[in-house]
Amino acid sequence: MFQSENVPPLPTPNEYAAAAHRVEILLAGDEKALGRVLMSVVAKDTAYKHFIEEATVLAGYVEPIDRSTGDFVDPENGAAKAFHRGATAGLLVDRQVHGTLLMPRRLFSELTLGGIEMDPDDMPQTRHLIAEAISEMGFRGLQVLGDETAEQVSAWSERFVLDVTKQRMFTIGAGVLVLLGRQQHEAALNRFHREAMETLVASVHDVDWDYQLAELTKPRINPDQH
Q: Are 175 and 137 in contact (CB under 8 A)?
């Protein structure tokens, strides 16, 4: 059973800004700070290894491929790496703003890509559709952050992705994780409200309505009559 004090309302833009500020303190340093902080998180909770694996798979879809050969256009996989770094930044914000509500093993279970069907005869097109859906999720996540935090994410992209043509993928990766964390928080809220309603309904059945009615209709003695 969820307790109301354990399921706060969804974060506001100000709360995201405060969380991003705390993350910025953690990331003070060079361009390798993201990796160091992530490894520190994994060392404390190995469940976050699942995030690394799932984010790596997702990042592979945003890496452009050559339709004629099926090979990645960029042999260095710059877009995928930028996306993964952004996803890491988004995860760090999630941890600050959602606290114990964040369940890393189940984060990607909230991922929905609009019912895209895999077409084995045209995998490049399927990958393109998935990449578009991922980008749309990223933009939605950036919108819930608010302007101040979105600007901070943009600043991180410039610090941690030196190739300006790949910095957009960093912000998309961050936005995707922000959205997934928010959806997980929202699911927890929905469960709490549903369980609270079930408890209320159950308590209604425990009431002795005949007794309550009798009490309400019992003749009352007016003290002034004595």
A: yes
